[in-house]
Amino acid sequence: MNVPTDSLSDLVVERVGFGIFVLDRDMNVLMWNRFMQDHSGLSPEQMVGKSLFAHFPELPRVWLSRKIESVFQLGSFAFSSWEQRPYLFKFDHDRPITGGVDFMQQDCTFMPLMRDREVVAVCVTISDVTHVSIVQREREEAVAKLQEYADRDGLTGIANRRFFEARLRDEFTRWQRYGGEMSVLLFDLDHFKKINDQFGHGVGDTVLRVMAQRVAEVVRVQDTFGRFGGEEFALLLPCTPLEDAMRVAEKIRCTIADTPVEVQGAGVPVTASVGGAAARVGVPAYDVLINEADAALYSAKRQGRNRSVAFS
């Protein structure tokens, strides 16, 4: 049986799994396929001969008009990815709500329809890429979580030493270029080995977690607080002179010492010694700041612990 080619073409256009519609230069609809009807609730009879914006006033009129006009002028294809513009039409999608998208994510292709080497209309296709977008977002979120875990200390949840030193290096480079103020504090918990020996390493881990949480709650958003290893911690204070940094050191010391850590019904007293250093002319590298803050920390230890000392 011979089927007219035109009929086959019409059948394909109606049954394909993506949207197809055609616009003239005035943005009037010349064709509207089944996909567009099913997802918009508007039939070809309602759409053809009407301005696209008459039924879809929420469309990005300026952007879409420019896109269509560029195809008319240049006679070449144009494309818009969901990554650039998540959707053109606010169509519902059939993916789970947990996918995190409100509307069908769409790729759009704009094709010139030529007659006698002149563009007479533009065919727009709408592809449902919701599943692809959800998978990609989930992949990006997973990568971001892995990166976050790579930057975090496994026990306390604060920054680890690698991430802290990277931030310190960047901040020191910024200070070298633009000047200003920058300080670093190092502190560790006094006689922490005795806590482990007397109460066990499980209690010692709890003490480290509680101390990290207490300090994290009193530092600024722009500061970087990290665990340097064992019971030693570090705090990067951008735009902060040493005098102000030592006030922060005292605040941290008091925050740690004022309230014993409650573990298994017992109060475990904890204190900390703090050393501070600041960037200044003549400091050649960021690791010198660490060494100076470390020297100040050990000076605090020698002076009896549970105190803050600035490097000088």
From TrEMBL:
Q: Name one GO biological process term.
A: regulation of DNA-templated transcription
- Signal peptide position in this chain? none
Q: Locate the GGDEF domain: which residues?
A: 180-312
User: Where does the PAS domain lie?
Assistant: 5-56
* SUPFAM superfamilies associated with the record: Nucleotide cyclase, PYP-like sensor domain (PAS domain)
Q: Name one GO cellular component term.
A: plasma membrane
PROSITE patterns xref list = GGDEF (PS50887), PAS (PS50112)
Gene Ontology molecular function terms on file: diguanylate cyclase activity
Please give the catalytic activity noted in the UniProt record.
2 GTP = 3',3'-c-di-GMP + 2 diphosphate
Highest rank taxon of the organism: Bacteria
* EC number(s) reported in the record: 2.7.7.65
**Which PANTHER family does the UniProt entry name for this protein?**
DIGUANYLATE CYCLASE DGCM-RELATED, REGULATORY COMPONENTS OF SENSORY TRANSDUCTION SYSTEM
**Which named protein is this?**
diguanylate cyclase
Query: According to the entry, what is the taxonomic lineage of the organism?
Result: Bacteria, Pseudomonadati, Pseudomonadota, Betaproteobacteria, Burkholderiales
